[in-house]
Amino acid sequence: MQAQINRREFVRALGLGAASFAAPGLVGLRRAGAAAARGGKPNFVVIFCDDLGYGDLGAYGHPTIRTPNLDRMVAEGQKWTNFYAAASVCTPSRAALLTGRLPIRSGMCSDKRRVLFPDSAGGLPDSEVTIAEALKAAGYATACVGKWHLGHLPQYLPTRHGFDSYLGIPYSNDMRPTPLMDGEKVIEEPAEQSTLTKRYTQRALAFIESNKNRPFFLYFAHTFPHVPLFASGDFKDRSLRGLYGDVVEELDWSVGRILGALRELGLAENTLVLFTSDNGPWLTQKLNGGSAGLLREGKGCTYEGGMREPFVAWWPGRIRAGQTVMDMGSTLDFLPTILSLAGAAVPTGRVLDGVDISPALLGRGPSGRSVMYYYRGAKLYAVRKGPYKVHFITKPAYGRNIKDTWHDPPELYHLGHDPSEKFNIAERRPEVIAEINRLVEQHRENLVPGKDQLAERIKRK
Ligand code: MG
């Protein structure tokens, strides 16, 4: 109940904002008002790939995929090496990014059907407050371009969760039917996927151009390199890595266009751009899946390859160029970080699992994240604290019909010494396991039934 009241307050605030900006004949007023309203508020662009692996970019060591624009973004910004998606599959990962909360709190996770499907009746609950809603209430223009996957029925679409506009396929591009939606309307079915990255990019550029005089938030969630893979004629058959490389190289082109437009419009120094992916590579797709580099396993599991992602942050003049950050961070941290930098109100009446990592982005201190919880569905499989990671349960990557393996004692890895999780040191460090067990007890206490959806589910396991 508390959560709904808070959300209503946000919606009321954004309703007032929309009315004053949308009134006809007030364009001049809008521009003048926008300049004043900007008040030093930075713009935010989140570029979110689908199923891109830790090892899939030139700057992260891929030997044959060319990513000159992302490599330049890294050279001009920050490259993180211990950054995590909040889940190893699409739906929960996206819910966590937009709400700053573990998917178990929003109900956007399940042990049986791990993501939403075209026949799913549900979606991101109305009681959740997204980054878009919070920024909209603070005067931001907002747009969602690309994959949504938080409910395709009208009441769950991006336009009902704080985004002024939407263009994209509302779920994964391997699901049928495959509609391309503009706002809440289907404009093409099936979506012509070979030109999708291009069309998404055009929409993103148009949004940036038309909002250059007021603060904006662009959530650009690419459909690719999730299978089936498609590249446009300009990129097809160009990469040494084959079709997967063509697709990633086109995504890199798109990043270059976005950063180029920000520079050309004089917005670069007032815009934070964050680039990452929703989960690791889909290894069972073989040549059509990506690479987690030296990390173990991939999409769908709680080994590092399933959830550790490339993460690049770019903000010329604010983020010092050419840094590699080894602190931990997560997409869970986007909401508190972005709202803090915007000076916008953080949603109250709820547990937030994200922390404000702006001290690390701006070179003022550590990221503030020292623990990572690895959920698969509603079950806690693993926990990282500092360099140590405990696996209570393991299961190899997505697509293989293998049951959970429970570990007692749990497996323990030192991710600093052993990023590939090869050498179990549980017998040598029982005190580390005991400390992490205590942490898990505290964590479960804060998942109080009734306060957070699905919380009792974890208690019953
Ligand atoms: Mg994905």
Please characterize this protein's 3D structure:
The protein is α/β, with parallel strands linked by helices. The chain folds into 2 domains: 30-368, Alkaline Phosphatase, subunit A (3-Layer(aba) Sandwich); 374-446, Arylsulfatase, C-terminal domain (2-Layer Sandwich). Helix content is 30%, strand content 19%. The chain has helices at 2-22, 27-38, 68-76, 90-99, 103-106, 131-137, 196-210, 243-264, 304-307, 334-342, 358-361, 430-445, 455-460; strands spanning 43-49, 78-84, 141-146, 165-168, 180-182, 185-188, 216-221, 271-277, 308-314, 323-330, 371-376, 379-385, 388-394, 405-414. A 10-stranded mixed sheet has the order 6-5-4-3-7-1-8-9-2-10, sandwiched between helices. Strand 12 (379-385) and strand 13 (388-394) form a beta hairpin. Helix 3 (68-76) crosses helix 8 (243-264). Magnesium ion is lined by residues 50-51, 90, 226, 278-279.
